[in-house]
From TrEMBL:
GO terms for cellular component: CCR4-NOT core complex; P-body
Protein name, entry field: CCR4-NOT transcription complex subunit 1 CAF1-binding domain-containing protein
All residue ranges annotated as the CCR4-NOT transcription complex subunit 1 CAF1-binding domain in the record: 1-110
Any one biological process term the GO annotation gives: nuclear-transcribed mRNA catabolic process, deadenylation-dependent decay
Lineage: Eukaryota, Metazoa, Ecdysozoa, Arthropoda, Hexapoda
InterPro entries to which the protein is assigned, alphabetical: CNOT1_CAF1_bind, Not1
A GO term, aspect molecular function: molecular adaptor activity
Length: 110
């Protein structure tokens, strides 16, 4: 769901969220959230994301998905999962703001 759908089809995020919610399975919910964090982490650290605009769009889509799973439902994103302040500072130092700013904005706008 995360790798094949949420990353590539942001128009259907609400449908996927509704599906996971209707199943009412906490283990499934936790697994979807865990897989989202893993995918985001992988893309944030990937050199391909810097070079490829499609990869940046996928990361931004995952940011929207993560925001829907967490902040839109009044659930926190824990510092141990994603440290946004540190992420932005590190991105500034390593010239990766082109990746990080759209991702963070998308998470927060959900």
């Amino acid at each position: 769901l995360v790798e094949e759908r949420a990353k590539m089809q942001p128009n259907y995020h609400h449908v996927y969220l509704e599906l996971v919610t209707l199943l009412q399975d906490k283990a499934l919910w936790d697994e979807v959230l865990r897989e989202t964090y893993i995918s985001v982490s992988r893309m944030l650290n990937s050199e391909a994301t810097m070079q490829n605009s499609t990869e940046r769009t996928h990361l931004k889509n995952l940011g929207g998905w993560l925001g829907l799973l967490t902040l839109a439902r009044d659930r926190p994103i824990r510092h141990r999962n994603i440290a946004f302040k540190q992420l932005l500072i590190e991105a500034h130092d390593t010239k990766r703001l082109i990746i990080i700013i759209p991702f963070v904005c998308k998470v927060l706008t959900q």
